[in-house]
Amino acid sequence: MVCAIIAAAGYGRRMGGDQSKQLIILNGMPVVARSLRAIATCPQVDQLILVTAPEQIATLETLAAELDLGKPFQVIAGGSERQYSVANALKAVPTDAEIILVHDGARPLVRPEQVGAVVDAARVFRAAGLAAPVKDTIKTVNADGFAVGTPDRNCLWAIHTPQAFAADLLRHAYAQAETDQYLGTDDASLVERVGVFIKLVNGGYENIKITTSEDVCLAEALLARRME
Ligand SMILES: Nc1ccn([C@@H]2O[C@H](COP(=O)(O)OP(=O)(O)OP(=O)(O)O)[C@@H](O)[C@H]2O)c(=O)n1
Ligand SMILES: C[C@](O)(CO)[C@H](O)COP(=O)(O)O
Fold first, then answer.
1. Do strands 127-133 and 157-166 pair parallel, antiparallel, or not at all (unpaired)?
2. Domain boundaries, the chain
3. CA distances (Å), 61 to each of 53, 66, 76, 93, in order?
C-alpha cells in the first residue's frame, strides 16, 4: 500500500501578498488542486494525506472533495516547519503502508507517470526522489559573500518532490532527526543521515516549485505549452 503525503501547510512568505500560494489559480485551477490531482491520478498511489495550515482545513477539505480524487484522503493540520508538517502526517499514515511518498503542494506541474516512477524506484532502492541535473555553475560562498569554490557540476542535481521511501525507513529517519534536533529542508536529507542513499529519478525541468511570483508566470507558460 502506498500512502502519499502532500505538504501544503506553508505560508508562502517568499511569494509575498495576502493570498495563500496554495490557492493561487494557475490557468483555472488552484496550485494545490493540481498537485493533488497529479498524485491521485498515479495508479501506484492508494491514499492521500493533505497537510495544511489549521485555518485552511475546511477550505481544503471542500476543494479535495470537489476534485473527486477517487481515493481515500484526509486533511490534517501541519506544523511551523515543513519537516514538522510531514512528521504530523506520518502519525496519520496507516500502519499497513509499505511506501510513503511525500510531495510539495507547491509543485503542481508534476506528472502522474513521474510519481509512479519514484514509487517504483523506492520499491527497489528504499529511497527515491524526482530530481534534475543543475544547469547553472554553482559556487560555494563564504560569510562575506565571496565565491570560494566551484563544485564539479557533474556531481550536482537539484532535488525536487515527490520523494518516496520504505515506510519503516522514513519513520526511523524522522525519529532520528527528532532525537538529534536536526531540521532539514527535504525528507531525503533525513534519510541520508541514517546512511541510506537516495535513488534520483530525472524529472527534467518542468517540475518547478511555486516559491516566488516569477514561478507563477513560468508555471502558467508551461501549462499553456502542455495545453492544460
Ligand atoms: N510549515 C510548513 C512549511 C512548508 N510546507 C510545505 O512545504 C512545501 C515546500 O515549502 P515552501 O515552498 O518553502 O513553502 P512555504 O513554506 O509556504 O514558503 P516560504 O518558505 O516562502 O514561506 C510547500 O508545499 C509548503 O506548503 C508545509 O507543509 N509546512
Ligand atoms: C522539498 C523541496 O521542495 C525539495 O526541493 C525543498 O527542499 C523545499 O524547501 P524550501 O526551503 O521549503 O523551498
1. antiparallel
2. 2-226
3. 12, 9, 9, 18
Among 93, 110, 94, 106, which residue's Cα sits nearest to residue 40? 110
Ligand 2 pocket check: which of 86, 103, 104, 201 to mutate, most ligand atoms within 8 Å of Cβ? 104
Cα-to-centroid distance, 11 and ligand 1 (Å): 6
Cα pseudo-dihedral 9, 11, 12, 17, rounded to 10: 140
| Sign of CA pseudo-dihedral 183, 185, 187, 188 | negative
Ligand 1 atom nearest to CA at 210: 12
User: Which pLDDT score is estimated for 18?
Assistant: 78
How confident is the model at residue 123, as a pLDDT?
98
* CATH hierarchy code of domain 2-226: 3.90.550.10
Which residues, judged by CB distance below 6 Å to any ligand atom, belong to the binding site of ligand 2? Answer: 82, 104, 159-161, 185-186, 209, 211
- Ligand 1 atom closest to Cα of residue 107: 24
| Residues lower than pLDDT 70 in the chain | none
Nearest-ligand number for the alpha carbon of 5: 1
Looking at residue 43, what is its pLDDT? 98
